[in-house]
């Protein structure tokens, strides 16, 4: 028998629930109840669609025989999070004849979630989006909080909108088909919550490493729920990232620079994926904090060792020039008035946003990195 679903409520102006349990993609009643009108577009990628799209379509049809359901499948990987694929998703909504009460279902990882969410944000100035995350990373981070976006050659997530989902259903049974590398990438974002604001959670992650890496259902469900609670608490207070939400970007300015400079990751190349780049970025942020006298070197080393023990990279990949990475960092969305604004920390669990960070100090860390 499946365990009872865990739920995390996200409050604020547009409240919604995150439901976490195995088997949710078969829950015809719960999925169909999200569709206010007659049109649903299922967006997925070429890895996930063959595994799970039929069951979602079948569940929707079972509960609502009147629904017109379209499907749009993009190639897997970050390289698909483009304006061109966004355009194709919009065309799929047009072909479906989707009206303002249509619902977009984002079935996949963060790439699908961000792109489908952005299409939902833009179609007729905004239709409903239900997130059906199938990677750990999407369950603990990208499906929650309403940030939607696509990448452009100049940088990641530079074109997008805030568009909170109508609901999030994290079917943890889908994690059983997730490649081990992608599971580890998700664990990097789980570790991020501990690094930012919860030293005890980080301690728990140290203890549960083997069960989490082995894909233990109960340990993963606990990690997902705890991560979603952290994220919900922050985004309901600061949905538009005018303050504390920026803390969720620990390691991201460095990580996005690596991703952009390397060329985005895909199943066909060895470039770092998002979670891996964030792992490296968090180590660099911790080292920079130490270099600026905000925190001890020992905290940076503790975080690095934990990420390494989780099988995550902790060094800048070979061949990336520090100056080029710094140039990428100058285009980060957190920067104000052309000055670098980074998430650093005072030690484990105590992240803070630091305006106007000295570029020479950043460059020194990148050179050592
Ligand atoms: P992803 O969507 O590329 O998925 C990773 C890989 O796993 C892909 O090849 C995908 O096809 C495959 N996959 C997905 N689910 C599977 C399953 N159940 N079984 C087998 N294969 C499966 O990557 P991701 O790590 O999920 O997401 C990364 C993206 O999320 C980045 O673009 C990042 O910028 C974005 N992101 C957004 C937010 C936000 O707040 N919106 C937060 C964090 C990350
Ligand atoms: N992943 C960062 C955020 O949602 O704000």
Report the uncertain regions.
Answer: none
Q: What ligands does this structure carry?
A: nicotinamide-adenine-dinucleotide, glycine
Q: Globular, elongated, flat, extended or rod-shaped: what is the shape?
A: globular
- Give me the secondary-structure category: alpha/beta
* Spatial gap, N to C terminus: 48 Å
DSSP strand count: 11
Structure in a nutshell:
The chain has helices spanning 28-32, 49-63, 83-96, 110-122, 136-142, 180-197, 199-207, 209-213, 217-237, 252-262, 274-291, 297-309, 322-329, 359-368, and strands spanning 6-10, 16-21, 39-45, 68-74, 103-108, 128-133, 147-152, 155-162, 167-171, 342-345, 351-354. With 369 residues, it is of the alpha/beta class. Helix 10 (252-262) packs across helix 11 (274-291).
Please describe what this structure looks like:
The strands form three sheets. Strands 1-2-9-6-5-3-4 form a seven-stranded mixed beta sheet, sandwiched between helices. The chain has helices at residues 28-32, 49-63, 83-96, 110-122, 136-142, 180-197, 199-207, 209-213, 217-237, 252-262, 274-291, 297-309, 322-329, 359-368; strands at residues 6-10, 16-21, 39-45, 68-74, 103-108, 128-133, 147-152, 155-162, 167-171, 342-345, 351-354. Helix content is 45%, strand content 17%. The chain has two domains: 6-177, Rossmann fold (3-Layer(aba) Sandwich), CATH 3.40.50; 180-368, Dehydroquinate synthase-like - alpha domain (Dehydroquinate synthase-like, alpha domain). It contains 14 helices and eleven strands. It is an alpha/beta fold and 369 residues long.
């Amino acid at each position: 028998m499946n365990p009872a679903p865990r739920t995390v409520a996200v409050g604020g102006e547009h409240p919604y629930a995150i439901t976490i349990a195995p088997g949710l993609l078969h829950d015809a009643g719960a999925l169909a109840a999200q569709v206010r009108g007659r049109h649903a577009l299922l967006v997925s990628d070429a890895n996930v669609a063959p595994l799970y799209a039929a069951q979602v379509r079948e569940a929707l049809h079972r509960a609502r025989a009147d629904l017109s359901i379209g499907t749009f499948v993009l190639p897997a990987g970050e390289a698909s999070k483009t304006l061109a694929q966004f355009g194709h998703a919009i065309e799929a909504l047009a072909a479906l004849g989707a009206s303002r009460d249509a619902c977009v279902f984002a079935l996949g990882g963060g790439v699908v979630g961000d792109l489908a969410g952005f299409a939902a944000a833009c179609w007729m100035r905004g239709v409903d989006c239900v997130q059906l995350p199938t990677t750990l990373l999407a369950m603990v981070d990208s499906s929650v909080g309403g940030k939607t976006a696509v990448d452009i050659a100049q940088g990641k997530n530079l074109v997008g909108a805030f568009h909170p989902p109508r609901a999030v259903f994290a079917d943890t049974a889908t994690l059983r088909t997730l490649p081990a590398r992608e599971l580890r990438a998700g664990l990097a974002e789980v570790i991020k919550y501990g690094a930012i604001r919860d030293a005890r959670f980080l301690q728990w992650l140290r203890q549960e490493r083997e069960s989490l890496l082995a894909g233990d259902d109960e340990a993963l469900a606990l990690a997902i729920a705890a991560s979603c609670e952290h994220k919900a608490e922050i985004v309901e207070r600061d949905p538009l990232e005018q303050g504390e939400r920026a803390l969720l970007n620990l390691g991201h300015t460095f990580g996005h620079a690596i991703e952009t400079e390397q060329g985005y990751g895909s199943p066909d190349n060895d470039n770092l994926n998002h979670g891996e780049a964030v792992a490296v970025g968090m180590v660099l942020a911790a080292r920079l904090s130490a270099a600026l006298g905000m925190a001890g070197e020992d905290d940076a080393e503790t975080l690095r060792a934990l990420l390494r023990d989780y099988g995550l990279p902790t060094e800048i990949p070979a061949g990336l020039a520090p100056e080029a990475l710094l140039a990428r960092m100058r285009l980060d969305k957190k920067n104000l008035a052309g000055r670098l604004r980074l998430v650093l920390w005072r030690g484990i669990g105590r992240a803070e946003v630091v305006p106007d960070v000295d570029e020479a100090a950043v460059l020194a860390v990148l050179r050592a990195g």
